[in-house]
Design brief:
- One of its GO terms (cellular component) is plasma membrane.
- By secondary structure, the chain is an alpha+beta fold.
- The protein has a single domain (34-172), classed as Umud Fragment, subunit A.
- Helices cover 19% and strands 33% of the residues.
- The chain has helices spanning 3-31, 58-61, and strands spanning 32-36, 51-55, 69-73, 78-85, 90-94, 97-100, 103-104, 121-125, 130-134, 151-152, 156-165, 171-172.
- The strands form two sheets. Strands 1, 2, 3, 4, 9, 10, 11 and 12 form an eight-stranded antiparallel β-sheet that branches.
- A hairpin with a 5-residue loop joins strand 11 and strand 12 (171-172).
């Protein structure tokens, strides 16, 4: 192999590696990112210490939907919660049951009744630029009911798509 061929081969490898790095940086900055779940507020869906990939682009193209697990950016920290109430809806929790617009809502994404009998909340009509969120572990979650408040649309920075760590938990989060 001649010196020129070796030089060209190294140059080609260098370009390929540089392009791969640039693509990875673009994807990480504008489309996908990772977040670590802190605490037990999303149990059993997401557990403390799990790392999830979230889609940053999806809400530029579409609105958040009920049931989406979203990443919420606040000045002190980010939160992972599930969207329960949409803009313009009325939320109420009465005798442990969740009502949306005066209709009982079945939470199929939870393995059991997650709102306890002592939980009563609302009714609250959600403003047009806001969302009502809750953690799946309703008994301990800091969410729209008790400290996190309503979430502004621009505070939602992405939708959780897949668990990437630990590897044995690889799964879609929705």
């Amino acid at each position: 192999m001649t010196e020129t061929k070796k030089k060209n081969e190294w140059l080609e490898w260098g370009k390929a590696i540089l392009i791969a790095i640039l693509i990875a940086l673009f994807l990480r900055s504008f489309i996908f990112a990772t977040s670590i779940v802190e605490g037990d507020s999303m149990d059993p869906t997401l557990e403390d210490g799990e790392r999830v990939i979230f889609n940053k682009l999806i809400y530029l193209l579409d609105d958040p939907k009920r049931g989406d697990i979203v990443i919420i950016q606040r000045p002190a920290k980010n939160y992972v919660k599930r969207i329960i109430g949409l803009p313009g809806e009325t939320i109420e929790i009465s005798s442990g049951d969740l009502y949306i617009n005066n209709e009982q809502y079945t939470q199929n994404f939870l393995p059991e009744k997650a709102i306890y009998q002592s939980d009563n909340y609302g009714p609250l009509t959600i403003p047009e630029d806001s969302y009502f969120v809750m953690g799946d572990n309703r008994s301990i979650s800091k969410d729209s009911r008790n400290g996190l408040g309503l979430i502004l649309e621009d505070e939602i920075i992405g939708k959780s798509e897949v668990i990437i760590y630990p590897i044995n938990e690889w799964a879609r989060t929705n």
